[in-house]
Design goal:
Number of strands: 9
Oligomer: single chain
CATH class: Alpha Beta
CATH superfamily: Ribonucleoside hydrolase-like
Number of domains: 1
CATH topology: Inosine-uridine Nucleoside N-ribohydrolase, Chain A
Order of helices and strands: EHEHEHHEHHEHHEHHHHEEEH
Helix content: 40-55%
Distance between the termini: 18 Å
Structural class: alpha/beta
Radius of gyration: 18 Å
Strand content: 15-25%
Number of helices: 13
Largest sheet: 9 strands, mixed
Bound molecules: calcium ion
């Protein structure tokens, strides 16, 4: 049986590659994409999701969701990382398809009612849609097979503040709800995505394998790579969102630690993810009150990158 997923996304250059992956992998059944603001405004995210599906030759329902954080003042959009249009400011055709009428959160609730216990939520943007879905229907926690979140950081520090990773910083209140909801959740954060690189040679091979969609992936990658050269001094990009898909298919390439996650929602450390491993003993037990989750701490980055290339050059 194929693995049914709902992909929650804010495309985004690295989202685009992850979307190509979920469409290309024959073992993944994409029930829908739900969109959120994050790298771009939500209308742009929706348009990009529709367009990427179209270029990949797939018909995938897209449900639009969160336009802003649950309670904090929105951050400026990271145009210097992803461009104003989210895909490196390359020229893009207008999608010919439209989003469904259902909201993202309702879509998640409805689909999981149809197939209880089967669906994995792969969330690679700010977590507002999942938080609202939990609010609409708290029994959702019992119907989802698992939740894979790209976001957060334990030992790597942040990428938008010294402490906070972008998706969590964009909506820390939503992240807190999602991490403490008590469902099977794995966090795929900077501790592993920063150890995974797609270099230009690999990207060129991927572009060749993906036709029309490959052109968009490669051209937007060039813009994104400029940022990585300046920010991290690497020749290539971190495929953050693709790492979440890699975990879905190849968890054996990662090492996870089980524990409790607290999200700092306010103040100077806003967006920081504070991890208390299950095995650790602290002077106070307030860090260990929340449900347990799994956190990716180590990865075989080379093999993850090779897997991404293999899927995108053979399907
Ligand atoms: Ca993303």
């Amino acid at each position: 049986m194929r693995t049914p997923i709902i992909f929650d996304t804010d495309p985004g250059v690295d989202d685009a590659q992850a979307i190509a992956l979920i469409m290309a992998d024959p073992d993944i059944e994409v029930l829908g994409m739900t969109t959120t603001y994050g790298n771009v405004p939500v209308e742009t995210a929706t348009s990009n999701a529709l367009l990427l599906a179209e270029l990949g030759g797939h018909s995938i329902p897209v449900a639009q969701g969160a336009a802003r954080p649950l309670s904090k003042t929105p951050n400026p959009f990271p145009t210097f990382v992803h461009g104003v249009n989210g895909l490196g400011d390359i020229d893009l055709p207008t999608p010919t398809t439209r989003a469904v009428d259902t909201t993202a959160a309702q879509f998640i609730v409805d689909e999981t009612r149809k197939r209880p216990g089967e669906i994995t939520l792969v969330a690679v943007g700010p977590l507002g849609n999942l938080a609202v879905a939990l609010q609409l229907d708290p029994t959702l926690v019992d119907r989802v097979k698992q939740v894979i979140v790209m976001g957060g950081s334990v030992k790597q520090g942040g990428n938008v503040t010294p402490l906070a990773e972008a998706n969590i910083y964009s909506d820390p209140h939503a992240a807190h709800r999602v991490f403490t909801a008590g469902w099977p959740l794995v966090m795929v954060g900077l501790d592993v995505t920063h150890k995974t690189h797609i270099d230009p040679e690999r990207m060129a091979r991927i572009a060749k394998g993906q036709g029309k969609l490959g052109e968009v992936l490669a051209d937007s990658y060039s813009f994104y790579a400029d940022f990585y050269r300046k920010a991290l001094g690497i020749n290539g990009c971190c495929p953050h969102d693709s790492c979440a898909v890699a975990w879905l298919k190849h968890p054996e390439l990662f090492k996870t630690v089980r524990g409790h996650m607290s999200v700092i929602t306010d103040g100077l450390a806003q967006g920081q993810t504070v991890f208390a491993p299950e095995s650790a003993v602290f002077a106070e037990d307030r860090w260990s009150q929340t449900p347990l989750i799994d956190v990716c701490m180590e990865v075989d980055g080379e093999r993850v990158s090779q897997w991404i290339e293999d899927v995108l050059t053979s399907h």
